[in-house]
Amino acid sequence: MKTSNLLTLLACLFLANVAHAFPQQQLVPGGIAIVKIDGASKPTLYYQDRKVLTLAKDNAWFAIVGIPLSAKTGNHLLINKNTSRKFAFFVSDKDYPAQYITLKKTPKNKRMINPNKMDMDRISRERKTLARALATWSKQQAHVDFILPAHGRLSSPFGLKRFFNKQARKPHSGLDIAAPKGAPVQAPASGTVVDVGNYFFNGNTVLVDHGQGLISGYFHLSKTLVAIGDSVTQGQQIAEIGATGRVTGPHLHWNVYLNRTKVDPAFFISDHIHQLKTSTK
User: Fold this and answer.
1) For residue range 22-61, what is the model confidence (pLDDT) as tens digits?
2) Which domains does the chain possess?
């Protein structure tokens, strides 16, 4: 058998035996595009100059693309750097509701709304640290079949236009699960810890790399139970819920990043979201 034919056969066998529970496709800002890519060999894909996660399923390759909240309505393009082929997907508009949050007028909370110069210097340093962690790209097989990281009430969904003490701030970039301080936080999928720290807005933080630019983040924690470089398995406790950073009460703020883009975590747990009681109060 020719080498090329053997490689094609092996690739097809590999594709046939790899199964994944993909996240839910939602072609909106903050959503996920799942694009089928023809060919037996693994493609190298880019969206807005950022490398994209690819997985094999049902004898085909699929790109799983994070769509930024700032995305405009219309056609968006994936580029296969191996073949220069382009693949289009259409993004529809979505109008996210507004949320108004009142922080008590304590000295600390005033700084959370209007940080002083020392705070801004710290925030600037922290942004660079987080950016480095979120730029992680590991070639390992990505784990996309998520479970809930915590159990409680869904207190704030993704994408809300937020106002703190009537001042506009960036949209809500994650999903909030309200639960008592000390409640467990578990890894929704296997991965490697790429950051553990304490941040001005985010409080105690853990970031987990699940492969190929898929990273999950856990914020406002009371306690972290892992260290950078640790391997974690699905369901393993990694932290405890808390109220550190800019918060009004104990809860888990959970982010999911694809191609360095924040997307709605609910699309990774669509089979489990009914377990959370929705409330935006």
Assistant:
1) 999 999 999 999 999 987 788 999 999 999 999 998 889 9
2) 3-91 (2.60.40.1590), 98-278 (2.70.70.10)
Reported as a pLDDT band with limits 50, 70 and 90, residue 225 is very high
40 burial (CB, 10 Å; 0-12 / 13-18 / 19+) is middle
Q: What is the pLDDT of residues 147-191, one digit of tens each?
A: 999 999 998 889 887 666 666 667 788 999 999 999 999 999 999
